[in-house]
């Protein structure tokens, strides 16, 4: 079985980031890190919104018809 076929552990990267000491980072490095994290947050939000829209479309397509 390929490693790519195994389920990914969720939250692992965020947990690792939260445990990392920030003491060795310069002000500029911290700013860069904030920008990268904000970009990742925007990417996750966009994916979540697309998934929600897809779900709404699927629900509308497959919902039972109301008899009139």
Supply database-style keywords.
68 residues; mainly alpha; 2 helices
Write the SSE topology:
Elements lengths: L11 H8 L7 H36 L6
Principal-axes geometry comes out as elongated
Mean pLDDT: 88
Low-confidence spans: pLDDT under 50, at least 5 residues?
A: none
Biggest β-sheet: count, sense, barrel?
none
Number of strands: 0
Question: What would you report as the Rg, rounded to the nearest angstrom?
Answer: 20 Å
Going by helix content, strand content and strand pairing, the class is mainly alpha
Strand content: under 5%
The N- to C-terminal Cα distance equals: 52 Å
Sketch the topology as an H/E string, one letter per element.
Answer: HH
Helix content: 55-70%
Count of alpha/pi helices: 2
What do you see in this structure?
This protein is mainly alpha-helical and 68 residues long. The chain has a domain at 27-63. Helix content is 65%, strand content 0%. It contains two helices and no strands. The radius of gyration is 20 Å and the shape is elongated. The N and C termini lie far apart (52 Å). The model has no long low-confidence stretch (mean pLDDT 88).
């Amino acid at each position: 079985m390929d490693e790519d076929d195994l389920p990914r552990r969720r939250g692992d990267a965020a947990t690792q980031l939260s445990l990392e000491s920030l003491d060795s980072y310069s002000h500029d490095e911290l700013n860069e890190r904030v920008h990268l994290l904000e970009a990742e947050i925007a990417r996750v939000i966009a994916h979540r919104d697309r998934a929600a829209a897809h779900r709404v479309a699927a629900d509308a397509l497959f919902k039972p018809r109301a008899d009139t």
